[in-house]
Amino acid sequence: MKKFFKDFGNFIKRGNVLDLAVGIIIGGAFNKIVSSLVNDILMPIISLPFNGDLNTKFFVLRGGAEYISHPESGVLELVKSTDAVLMFYGRFIQSVIDFLIIGFTLFVIIRTVTKFNEKREQLAQEIKQKIAKGEDLSEEEEEHIEEEEPEVKEEILLLREIRDSLQKE
């Protein structure tokens, strides 16, 4: 488990362009799910010690500001002076949690794909060694060889037929 989190730390620090591209795509796809998880499940639990929604917490750097509850609707409204400067630390905490969840999800996906590719490459090397030694291959190994053989496009087959017919003449 220690190695798992060490790999996660290295993944976050690496900054590889491919990892970033995958992160953007998957992050966009999971945006609503992650936002709902953070907003509807994690933030209420994290907000418990803060006596209210952490998302609405802020520091007043200048001026004045406060939330006022409307008696009829019970809706909170932020009322601030025209010169107010506010720092919403609750929103920042929420964004950090979003980032960590998305980053961790990407790490798990990329790590799984990498491990799969490493095993596949190792199997291919073992098969090549067996072929070089003249050893018999199992059915699974023979299937792996068939998967590795690239499919020849129809155009290439046609060009080969033309070449062969020209060579006969």
Give a short account of the largest sheet.
2 strands, antiparallel
Roughly how many Å apart are the termini?
68 Å
Quick one: overall form? elongated
The counted number of beta strands is: 4
Q: Which structural class do you get from the secondary structure elements?
A: mainly alpha
Using only C-alpha atoms, the radius of gyration works out to 29 Å
Q: What percentage of residues falls in helices of 4 or more residues? A: 55-70%
N-to-C order of helices and strands: HHHEEEEHHH
Average pLDDT rating: 80
Strand content: 5-15%
**Poorly predicted ranges:** none
Count of helical segments?
A: 6
Strand order of the largest sheet: 1-4
Structural domains: how many: 1
Structure description:
The protein contains six helices and four strands, in the order αααββββααα. It has 169 residues and is mainly α. The protein has one domain. The strands form two sheets. The chain has a two-stranded antiparallel ribbon. Strands 2-3 form a two-stranded antiparallel sheet.
